[in-house]
Amino acid sequence: MKRKLTRFAAGLLAVPVLVLAGCARAPEPALAVPMVGEATAPADAEALLAQFADFPVERTPRPILLFSGRVMEYGYTSGDAKIAVSLGRLALRAELPDSPATVRATLHDGAFELPAISARQAYDMLLAVGDPKSAPDANPAPLAITKVTLGEAEFSTDRGLRKLPAWLFTAAESFQPIAVLALADTAFWPAERMKGAMGPAGLAADGVTLTVRLTTPGPPCPGRLANQYEAEVVESAKAALVRLRIVATPPAASPGTPEGCARFAKLYTEEFTVRLAQPLGNRVLLHTSEHPS
Fold first, then answer.
1. Which among 102, 198, 202, 279 could disulfide-bond with 113, CB atoms 3.0 to 4.6 Å apart, if both were Cys?
2. Is the pLDDT of residue 29 over 50?
3. Last-in-domain residue among 157, 188, 219
């Protein structure tokens, strides 16, 4: 079941980028998100929601949607060290410790004993971060790994920053130990099925009022009027998607008004507040970055 919900818009933010662009002709109104009993949702929303059609919202623990990679680097004291890691050129000069079968992870829905990867698997994952083709002419000394321990590191998930079990690889030329998530693949939702996922940082305590900042097309060219936009929510049992649609288009420009204009492109964002039909709970929150058309 999917339905359109209430919304309102607030402040506008513009971030300049040094790219020249021209104004395009005002797009036609997008399809509205359907009310109960109406036609299916627009194709862009359906495609994103379809990624999560089998998302196990009832499962405990809920699968982790990982925004950061499984390997966290914190910077290096030299350019050669950075290049060495980018090439996958490491030297293991420490004994790999025994690996537990499970590790304890504290997630947003509780603390759980979850299957773990071994220190060897984590080291192989760290090696795989590199690509020998990334700098074929470089020849740095391998980054020496002098200590390997099981600890914790902070990773970005769709439920905020989380300290999770990680294998920590110490190197003299790394500002902090390089962290590799110690959880097995079964703890995660597939990364290739996470397009549009976002964190619920703007979710109010009631679980249904959500404030998000979405990209908007920005102001029109001189002599042309702007479209009017609003945010709306498309919901399923597994996810809730926030998107923009055009609710009103201006009348045609007066004769002689230029079709386009040269200007510096800017990233415009606008804050919107929507209400979900039911508390977000374990569902996934999504957004579409495409402008309405």
1. 102
2. no
3. 188
- Interstrand relation of 178-181 and 160-170 (parallel, antiparallel or unpaired): antiparallel
Phi and psi torsions of 2, nearest 5°: -135, 145
**The domain boundary residue, chosen from 132, 165, 188:** 188
CA distance 290 to 239: 18
3-class secondary-structure state, position 42: coil
Q: What pLDDT does 291 receive?
A: 56
Q: What is the pLDDT of residues 4-19, one digit of tens each?
A: 343 333 443 444 433 3
Mean pLDDT in residue range 216-235:
82
pLDDT for 80-132, tens place per residue? 999 999 999 999 999 999 999 999 999 999 999 999 999 999 999 999 999 99
Q: Are residues 197 and 180 in the same domain?
A: no
Q: Tokens representing 96? A: 């790999």
pLDDT of amino acid 289: 65
188 closest CA partner among 289, 242, 117, 97: 117
Phi, psi of 44 (to 5 degrees): -65, -40
Q: What dihedral do alpha carbons 66, 71, 74, 76 form, nearest 10°?
A: -150
Structure-block tokens of residue 292: 């309405």
Residues 161 and 252 in one domain: no
3-class state of residue 271 by DSSP: strand
Per the CB < 8 A criterion, the answer to whether 151 and 143 are in contact is no
Q: Is the dihedral of CA 191, 99, 174, 129 positive or negative?
A: negative
What does the alpha-carbon distance between residue 130 and residue 126 come to, in Å, rounded to a whole number?
8
